Each structure stands twice: as C-alpha cells, then as structure tokens.
Amino acid sequence: MNFKIDQQRLNRELDTLASFSADPAPAVTRVVFSEQDLAARAWIKERFREAGLTMRDDAVGNTFARWAGANPDLPAVGTGSHIDAIPHAGKFDGTVGVLGSLEAIRALQAAGFKPRRSIELVLFTAEEPTRFGIGCLGSRVISGSLTPAADVQLREASAGPEGHGQTLESVRKSAGFTGSLDSALLPQNYFSAFIELHIEQGSILESEGVSVGLVSDIAAPAAFHIVIEGEGGHAGARLMPGRKDALCAAAEIILAVERSVLATGATDTVGTVGICQVHPGAMNSIPSRVQLSLDLRDTDAARRDAALEQIHNACGEIASRRRVAIKLETINADAPAQSSPEIVKALKEACDAEAVSYRTMVSRAYHDTLFMARLAPVAMMFIPCKGGVSHRPDEYSSPEQIHQGVKVLARVLAGLSAI
Amino acid sequence: MNFKIDQQRLNRELDTLASFSADPAPAVTRVVFSEQDLAARAWIKERFREAGLTMRDDAVGNTFARWAGANPDLPAVGTGSHIDAIPHAGKFDGTVGVLGSLEAIRALQAAGFKPRRSIELVLFTAEEPTRFGIGCLGSRVISGSLTPAADVQLREASAGPEGHGQTLESVRKSAGFTGSLDSALLPQNYFSAFIELHIEQGSILESEGVSVGLVSDIAAPAAFHIVIEGEGGHAGARLMPGRKDALCAAAEIILAVERSVLATGATDTVGTVGICQVHPGAMNSIPSRVQLSLDLRDTDAARRDAALEQIHNACGEIASRRRVAIKLETINADAPAQSSPEIVKALKEACDAEAVSYRTMVSRAYHDTLFMARLAPVAMMFIPCKGGVSHRPDEYSSPEQIHQGVKVLARVLAGLSAI
C-alpha cells in the first residue's frame, strides 16, 4: 500500500497548537482545563471533524475520535497521546503523538485504505501532573487505575502547602466534562491494540543516529510529597544551636534523594525533587515548613522501592538529628508495563517496509500507555529529540524525524486494523 | 516626677493595630504601602493627632509626630519604631516601640511634664525587607545610607526570579509619598538622642527573668541573593550522570551556609536561607534555576565577612563540580552600630528609678536604630518576648512586660528632653 504523509501540514498544525500557550513562544504552557487547553482542544476537534472522525468526550475530558472500520463491532486499534504541557515546556511532547496520529489517519484515508477494525485516536486528559499532582489522569481513569473516590478527593496541587485548590470534580465540570468518573471506564475488549508515538525525551536515538525507538518496557514511576515541619523565628535573633530550620532539613533530603538514587548503581534509577515550597518564605525568617515533591522512576519496581527505602531512612535520621517532623506521603507508585511482543513485531515489520532504522529501548518517562497496558496489548514508538531535551522551550524534533515516525505509525495502524 | 502608663489603653491599641492585617488573626501580615499598611497608618495618625502631636510625612513615607518643647529649635529627642509586618508575623514586633512611645508621651503629658527639647516620635517606613528586598528603608533614607539612585533602582522583590516588580518610585508615589528621596535626608543635628523600644526577638531576657535589655551593640547584617543556573529537562528521561540540577546545587549551598556560620565558633554569627524559588517548579521537571536569599549577621563585621568568604568559596566549588553557574549578589552589607554610653547610662538610671531589672546585651536583629546611629547618639531597649519567638503569629509579650519597658522609656525621654 502506498500513502503519503503531508509533513508540511503536520508542521503547520504543530506550530498552531503551540500557539495555545499561557507563556510567550518559544515556551509552551498549557495546563489541563486552562483557557489555553480548552481553546486548543476546540481547535484540534475541528481538525478531527474535518477528517470525518466521530467524536465523543468522556467524564474526565478524554476525547475519542474514531475512523469507523468495516466491522465496527470489533475491538478498535487505538492510538494517541496528550496535548497538555507543564509550565515553560516545549511544543513536541505529546503533541507529536496526537497530530501525528491524525496525519497518519488522513494519509491512509487519502490512499483509499478501508480499515476492517475501527481506528480510534485518543486525546488523553492531564498526562502531566501539573494541576492535580498526579500524572496520566485520563488513562488512569479509563483503565480503572483510580478508585472512584479519587473523583472527590483529587484537588489542584498548585494552591501550595497551605491553601486548598479546587477539586477535580469541580474543575472538570466547569470545563464541561460531567458525569461520574465510573462512566469513563473502558471494557477490556475495547481496544485490540494501542500504540503511542512520542518524542524520546532522552538522547539515545539521537546519539546512535537511529530513527525510531521501539519501547520494550515503561519504567515504573512513583511520586511523593515530603513535608518538613521545623520551627520558624527571626533570622537575626534566633541563634544557630536552637534552630529547627525546615529548609536545612529539606536540603539534606534533596541530597539524600540524589545519593540514594545513585547508590543503586543502575542507570535506570532516576530521582528528582522538582518542587520546593518554603513557608513563610521571607528573607529574614527561618523557614518553619517546607514541602518537596519527589519523582522516582525505575524499570525495576523492586530497585525503585529499595531507593525509596533509603530515602525514607535518611528522612528518619534527619528528622531525629534536626528535631523536625518529616512526613513522606505517596501520591502514586505505579507498576512498570511491558509492550506486547506482537505489536513490537508489527512495528519492526513496518520500519523495515518503510526503510526506517530502529532499536528497542526502555521508556523512562511516564506515558499514558503505561495505563493503557492494563486494558489492551500496547506498544510505544519514540522519535529522537535534540539533545534529549524535553519539558523546556528548546525541546525539538525535526520535520524529518517526525516524518519517519508518522509513516511507520500509519503503516502499523493499517496492518493492525486489517486483522 | 510621677506619671502613669495607661496599660489597658495601650493593650487595646496594640490589638486594634493588629487587626490591620492581610491574613486572619492571630497572624499579622502588613506589607509596607499595602492597603492594610495605609489603613493602619491612617488610624495611628489619628491617635497622634488626639495626643496633640504635630505631624509630617517625608518622601519615603516616614511619619514624624512631634511634641514641641519649650525650646523647639534645639535638636529633638527621637523615639519610635515600625509597624510593617512580614507575612504571617505577630503583633508586637515594631508596634510596641510605636504605640509604647505614644503612650509614654501621653503619660508625660498627663503628668504635666513640659519638655525643653521637642520629643519626636518616628514611624519608620519598611523596616522589613519584604517588599523591596532591603530592610530599614525609611531609616536608611533619612540617614543618607541609600544612594539617591536607589530611588529609581529599587524594585519590589516579590515578582520572583523572572518578573520585575514595580519600582519604589512608583509604589511610594501611588501611596501618596512624593518628592525626591534626597528631600528626606535629615541633618546631623536633627536629633540630640534617639531611643528605640522593641521586643527582644530572642530568649535571653525571658530565661534570665530580666525585664529590660539595654543594647550595647547592634549586629552587622548583610543580605544577598544567590542565583543558581543549571539545566532543566524531563525528570524521567534525563539520566542522573548528565544532570545539572540547580536544586541539588542549592541544597549544597544551604548546608554550606549553615556550616560556614557554625565554623566561626561564635554564637553571634547567624546565617539563614529564608527564600528558595525553584524554576520551573514542576514535579516532573529537573530544576533549571533556583534563587536563594541569604541573611548573614554578626556583631563583628570582619567575622561576618570571613563566613561570607567561606560561603563564596563553597559556591565556587559547587559550581565547578556540578557544572552550574552560581551568582552571589550583595543586596546590602551594613556596618554594626554601638549605643551611646551616655544614653545607656540614662537608661540604667531610669531603670533604677522605676525599680526595673536590666542587663546590657547585643541586638542580633536588624533595627532602624542601626541607621539612626549614623545621625545621632542612639540606644535601644528590649523587653522579653515569649520563647524568643518573633516573626510568627504566636509572638507574645505580656502587658506587664510591655509596661516595664514603656515606663522606663517615658522616664528617659523626660530626662533627655530636659537637658
């Protein structure tokens, strides 16, 4: 079968999508359910509509855009990704998987291809944890990975250590996504296969000069809040020996995270403290309370848990030595996922057919496919991004690199939808 | 001379002043030139007016309330303090010195005392560095300790590492304080003496059961910004060895500050990192930039500079080892001040006359008197505060403790204004 990816159209659409941003270009800031996110969704749905796709939104704001197959009752072939972006991020993370899938579908349509199974493009809600403190919200919900109570319990994380943000319940309803989260749960036979195209967010493909990475495993991510309660006071008058400075304790924890992660000796273990909120946060006031975030990932759940255990022990030691209270609260600690060998085989064949170089690799980043693996056989394909840079305004994949990925995706969607 | 402090009125006025707050009680948040600060100033000026004091405001917003003496051309006896409060502070820091001075004046008036020299109560603008990043703004300006260019250069600090706040120029003019800052400069013979009553913000007086602390030296404070520029990226995909995590570097600096301060071996050396702003500040993003504040104080300027030198060296080592850029910028590094032995002697005699116990001590906190010492002979008197706690909602001095301080202040103002 011959088909042609309209790369220029795809480039234009990636540029347009990037313009829906709360920060000026080249930064992209598009927090889920923000004004910019809702405007971007409206624009992208117009593109789905132009392509003749049938759409529905679920209660958490996932959008499903379906190209009906000749046998629409068969489980569909799924593809897609997310369009939300953390503050000061770039324009390729997630978006390549959404607009690339759309372009793949349009290329197959233009080539006269008629799928037997339906092909369904999923735009996932809140892959980024920015707003609600938990990643992959949309895919968690449809795969039954959130308890129903989460609907009520989840709140915006951005209100900081003191205030309380709005609930997910209230925010999603204000954005127009109503109904109970239970209604969004998908049955196990909904998809026959799910494939996500994404930028690598690492530098392996670029450094090896390989066009496509076929993901064998998705690393097991875990997220935590660490709250340190010390004692405040005046920065001049309270002498050093009597202090219980919460930020000094936090500094030791930040370094203990780094040390514990390096101590596993495995390159697959990564740990990051990305948030450090200090109360009261004044130049002449001793910090009385600090809230840290901790993001810990590994391809091996046991090894990740061992690193966490070390961090936990360090917190205990620091709390006792510095006479502060330290609370480590788990936000989520998910199990790793494996790709389906059959889909990976189909991807390899598609790469060969399109003369695109590939290698198998591990995904260290968090992706919706991690949760889709609980619903269906899955695989992910990566394309290179410059310098491995992601979540920054200078995130970049070239039109050529995107093109290689999208044409392999189109071919594999055609193949999987025909069987 | 017999006079009587109306402690109940003073208690009520302290309570009323505390109600001008941007945060609910018991917290007091009253940032200079905020709505709450301006309302508090209006209320307090009404009290000055009731006491028959003649008022003027200067270009930076200091208020001078004068009880004219029999010989009004003689240099006046000055007293006073500040009413601005950092976020989530308490109700006694500064306010005891302002309302206590007012009560002392009213007590002397009621007793029929007629001063020879005028007694002038000063309400200083922005003793706290919250808004403009520099403490003792009002006393710096009137003592010529700010270059005239500062009027144009000073900006709000609260806009964070990226944005720019409003200029002092614009904020003070919006608040109604116009004219050039030069016009606020006071001549050397304006005051014959200046005395500030303040809570100790430490626990020495309380633990020793002493009613009044007579300050011999005010510690030399210095303030700095430290900006760390590393490299951001995705918390999952960027492996540990390639990272230039700005927050890990910041953590080492925070601990180096603590270590360098402890290394002087002197209890008089204190150092605090009170602000830690992380960019971009997302759970799954490696921190690319961190801004820290550093507050460093000592009674010995040379020893303070030696600690700073150690911190500076640590920053250099950390920058080189972690391959990040670290910039240490001085906001201010002021010289210490000594009290006038004559005024301290007068204070001791007043304590003896009122049967109030006292000891001499060092002021470790920053006070407007530090800058008033450049204009006139000065002294400070401290009263105990519970547990040494200050800059917190639970800051507390009892009515009895305040009463002891105010009656000594009244007696010494009477004495100094008679000579």
TrEMBL record, chains A, B:
Protein's UniProt name: N-carbamoyl-L-amino-acid hydrolase
The text of the family note is: Belongs to the peptidase M20 family.
The note on cofactor binding and number reads: Binds 2 Zn(2+) ions per subunit.
* Listed cofactors: Zn(2+); Mn(2+)
Report the residue ranges that make up the Peptidase M20 dimerisation domain in this protein.
223-319
A single Gene Ontology MF term assigned here is: metal ion binding
Q: For binding Zn(2+) 1, which residues are annotated in this chain's numbering?
A: H82, D93, H198
Provide the binding site for Zn(2+) 2.
D93, E128, H391
Q: Which UniProt keywords apply?
A: Hydrolase, Manganese, Metal-binding, Zinc
The Enzyme Commission number assigned here is 3.5.1.87
Quaternary organization: Homodimer.
Q: Does the keyword Ligase apply?
A: no
Give the Gene3D superfamilies listed for this entry: 3.30.70.360, Zn peptidases (3.40.630.10)
